[in-house]
């Protein structure tokens, strides 16, 4: 059985899909990245038995930038495994102190070039891992049921967690509204930060991948992660 495209219309007041080459000041790509789109689908349904493969992103409103200044904490959150130990009570939590005391890491004001009033129509497929291939139909049904009801594991977001994403399921093949008439060479664009070729890769160190993004008539086609069009580093955690 071949997977079917699961289509969502997604919108929000603000979005920021940060370009990785601009380290300190956040500057957004003009279009949503595949990894940000994947995170929206995973917010609705995620199980370790499959992965999401984004196939297409349609831009329904032209990109418009807005300059923001935000106070950001300088320190970094620990690894996911450490946070899991905190949640399970196996380890004493160590919070990030923004102000006061010797433990404070401090905060800094940084510039953000974000997008405003964004709207996309996203296409993605459920790709079960080989041992769960027979569950595809049930997983697709579960996703459509949850998306139709507006159910999610956590609030989806548009690049940054403080920029919430709102969504609705497009289950009738509707192309209304049509994509914005945009042609744009996006250059090398971030594809994902994890190795999507195997289960459990999100628990390992980051494995950055990029691809050459192109917008044609408002549509960005996303190649499969296994495609030669996706340039990626070999994950060290094998």
How would you characterize the overall build of this protein?
The structure is a single chain. 14% of the residues lie in helices and 36% in strands. The protein is mainly beta. The protein has a single domain, classed as Alpha-Beta Plaits (2-Layer Sandwich). The mean pLDDT is 89.
The whole-angstrom Rg is 19 Å
CATH structural architecture? 2-Layer Sandwich
The 3D shape can be described as globular
Our estimate of the beta-strand percent is 35-45%
CATH class: Alpha Beta
- Total of helices: 3
Please mark out the parts with pLDDT under 50 across 5 or more consecutive residues, or reply none.
none
Number of domains: 1
CATH fold title:
Alpha-Beta Plaits
Mean pLDDT: 89
What is the share of helical residues? Answer: 10-25%
Distance linking N and C termini? 29 Å
Question: In this structure, how is the largest beta sheet organized?
Answer: 7 strands, mixed
Structural class: mainly beta
The strand count comes to: 12
Order of helices and strands: EEHEEHEHEEEEEEE
């Amino acid at each position: 059985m071949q997977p079917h495209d699961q289509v969502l219309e997604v919108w929000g007041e603000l979005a920021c899909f940060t370009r990785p080459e601009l380290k300190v000041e956040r500057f957004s790509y003009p279009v949503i990245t595949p990894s940000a789109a994947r995170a929206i689908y995973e917010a609705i349904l995620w199980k370790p038995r499959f992965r999401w493969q984004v196939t297409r992103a349609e831009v329904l409103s032209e990109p418009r930038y807005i300059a923001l200044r935000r106070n950001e904490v300088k320190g970094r959150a620990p690894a996911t495994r450490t946070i899991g130990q905190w949640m399970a009570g196996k380890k004493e939590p160590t919070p990030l102190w923004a102000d006061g005391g010797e433990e404070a890491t401090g905060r800094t004001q940084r510039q953000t070039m974000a997008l405003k009033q964004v709207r996309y129509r996203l296409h993605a497929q459920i790709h079960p891992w080989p041992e769960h291939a027979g569950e595809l139909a049930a997983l697709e049904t579960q996703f459509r049921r949850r998306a139709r009801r507006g159910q999610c594991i956590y609030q989806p977001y548009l690049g940054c967690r403080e920029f919430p994403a709102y969504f609705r399921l497009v289950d009738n093949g509707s192309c209304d509204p049509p994509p914005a008439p945009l042609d744009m060479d996006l250059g090398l664009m971030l594809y994902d930060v994890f190795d999507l070729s195997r289960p459990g890769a999100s628990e390992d160190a980051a494995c950055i991948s990029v691809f050459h993004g192109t917008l044609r008539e408002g549509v960005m086609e996303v190649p499969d992660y296994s495609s030669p069009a996706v340039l990626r580093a070999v994950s060290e955690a094998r």
